[in-house]
Amino acid sequence: MMNEDFVQRLKLAFENQSMADIARRVDVPHATIRNYFLGRLPAPEVLIKIAAETNVSLNWLLLGAGDMYIRGGEPLDLGRMIDRRIEEIVDLKLAARAGEVQQLGDIDVVPAFDVAAAVHEHGDPHVVMSEWFRHEGREYPADFGVVFFQGWESYSPSEKVEAIRDAKKVLDRTLRKQA
Fold this sequence. Notes:
This protein is an all-alpha fold. The chain contains nine helices and no strands. It is rod-shaped.
């Protein structure tokens, strides 16, 4: 039946709002809106109010023909329009400051500890380990054994770096087990 289809289109046009809300929006009595939901068609001037209030096409509202919205547009939503405009302004401001803004992916990245530079600078394996732990925000355990560093003076620079890395791996694994 045409009137049942009209009721469905009316509900859709008002996004399933209550009859009281619809009555307020088109400035007609609640009882009149209830009559529309029971199948009575609105007078032409009320149809025009409904179309203007919801931005729907009169052809679509009455007959279900053509596009739902006038000129294919969406229903007017002031909140959504304001949100879009704010997003545009923020995007423009950020684009203008692109050279000044640090990439967000780099903020929390701690640079890797340079073991070779620390070995070269300090020469002492315990000082290097202490610096590495401090770099990670931890404290180097004072009771760590010296087994990895026996014969340190005879190691080549690359062997010293590898000894530090090996000792750090073993120590990290041991500390994880203790935690």
